[in-house]
Specification:
Elements: H1 3-25, H2 51-56, H3 58-94
Helix pairs in contact: 1-3
């Protein structure tokens, strides 16, 4: 196996491992350290709706964009490598049997 193939394979597999975790995390708000409670009194008033905070979270948006970019890069790599392999195969067969 060539050095380039080993490097490409390692990068592809590393991205795939990270995607396993990122695909789930991309839909959640970024982790923020919890502040210590400074009171035992419960809040009064409206019910908290976390959806707008999750939707608008810039860390989540960056992660989502990275997931899409990585998935696109993997699809492009497969397309390019399949096309190159097909061209090489045709050229080899056109060269005649060995």
């Amino acid at each position: 196996m060539t050095d380039a193939l080993e490097a490409a394979s390692a990068s592809f597999l590393r991205a795939q491992r990270e995607l396993v975790f990122a695909k789930e995390a991309q839909w959640n708000k970024g982790q923020t350290p919890a502040l210590p409670e400074d009171t035992t009194e419960r809040s009064k008033g409206t019910v908290s709706d976390p959806v707008p905070a999750i939707v608008d979270d810039t860390r989540r948006k960056r992660l989502r964009a990275s997931v899409r970019e990585t998935e696109d890069a993997q699809r492009n790599l497969l397309r390019v490598m399949n096309a190159a392999a097909n061209r090489l195969e045709r050229a080899l067969h056109a060269n005649g049997p060995e």
